[in-house]
Write a structure and sequence with these properties.
By secondary structure, the chain is an alpha+beta fold. The chain has a single domain (about 45-305), classed as 4-Layer Sandwich (Deoxyribonuclease I, Chain A). Helix content is about 25%, strand content about 25%. The protein contains seven helices and twelve strands. The strands form two sheets. The protein has a six-stranded mixed beta sheet with strand order 3-4-2-1-12-11. α3 packs across α4 and α5 (about 185-205) runs parallel beside α6 (about 225-230). The longest helix is centred in the middle third of the chain and has 17 residues, at about 185-205. Residues about 1-30 have low confidence and may be disordered.
Length: about 300
């Protein structure tokens, strides 16, 4: 490049203004675009079902057999349209039957006898188009909670708790769901199993709202239910909060295929007392002498306020 060309190039450069984008970003006189607004926190509303299915066995004949009851169990779920289900006494074949007839749910849980598919499940079903599973697991109610089929507190039957941490896709909210089945014979097993579950929940408490469902095999005035209510978790029985005047003689959830309502209320949906309860019901659906189970399913709709 000769001197004349170089001089002409420098002159042109001097006449062209610098790029405006970088100079404006540094110029305090030029207003910056506002940051995008953050989405407003929303309340989280959940429709929850606790459902002891009564395990399939050869001693249940005629209308008590699973084959006779299966359609009624399906209709309970189809009619109620829960977001979350906590099952008790669910065998692998029973869950497969329900899954073949009801779509839209994802299953969480394992068989209690081998940690895989053998024995009863305390399974959880979640609406798969609404929730994302972030964590999940099952632990055994014993001194060795990580050992499948373990039992150490006088119970002849293995007991488990299945849990999951979920994210609600519409709101982005995270919450925990726990589902258990306590022993029907050993009071020690019920008390210690309850304490174990409460400790587990307390250790995960900062992660947001939570729901606890299950067959507790314990009445409302029992040491087990008292321990749940008086724990640091601040739990309440969703059904009793909305039905405080209903006498015990009309509050039973176990009926042994008879349809009576005077037996013990042993099934529960516990939620924090800070939650807003929209509805709660014991579901009495049946067709003639055919009941979905020997327990009445229990439903609650709960709303957790925006944080």
């Amino acid at each position: 490049m000769n001197r004349r060309t170089l001089a002409l190039s420098l002159l042109v450069s001097a006449l062209i203004p610098p790029a405006l984008s970088s100079s404006r970003a540094a110029d305090p006189a030029v207003p910056l675009s506002p940051a995008p607004a953050q989405p407003e926190a929303q309340p989280l509303q959940l429709r929850v079902l606790s459902f002891n299915l009564r395990y399939k066995n050869q001693n249940d004949k005629d209308e008590r057999s699973w084959e006779s009851r299966r359609a009624e169990a399906v209709e309970v779920i189809r009619e109620d349209k829960p977001d979350l289900i906590g099952y008790q006494e669910a065998l692998r074949s029973m869950l497969d039957d329900l899954g073949s007839l009801i779509s839209g749910y994802e299953e969480i849980g394992v068989g209690r006898e081998d940690g895989k598919t053998k024995g009863e499940y305390s399974a959880i079903w979640i609406k798969k188009d609404r929730f994302t599973v972030q964590e999940s697991g099952t632990f055994w109610l014993s001194d060795t909670p990580e050992v499948p089929n373990s039992k150490t507190w006088g119970n002849r039957v293995t007991r488990v708790c299945t849990w999951t941490k979920l994210q609600d896709k519409p709101t982005g909210r995270e919450f925990h769901f726990y589902n258990l089945h306590l022993d029907h014979e050993s009071q020690e097993a019920r008390d210690k199993g309850t304490a174990q579950v409460i400790r587990f929940m307390e250790n995960r408490r900062p992660a947001g709202p939570f729901v606890l469902t299950g067959d507790f095999n314990s009445g409302e005035d029992s040491s087990v239910v008292k321990a749940v209510r008086e724990s640091a978790l601040g739990l309440v029985d969703s059904w009793r909060v909305l039905h405080p005047e209903t006498p015990l003689s009309e509050s039973g959830t176990y009926h042994d295929f008879t349809g009576v309502r005077s037996r013990s209320k042993i099934d529960y949906i516990f939620v924090p007392k800070t939650a807003r309860l929209i509805d709660a019901a014991i579901i009495y659906r049946h067709s003639g002498n055919v009941w979905p189970s020997d327990h009445y399913p229990l439903r609650a709709t709960v709303e957790f306020p925006a944080p």
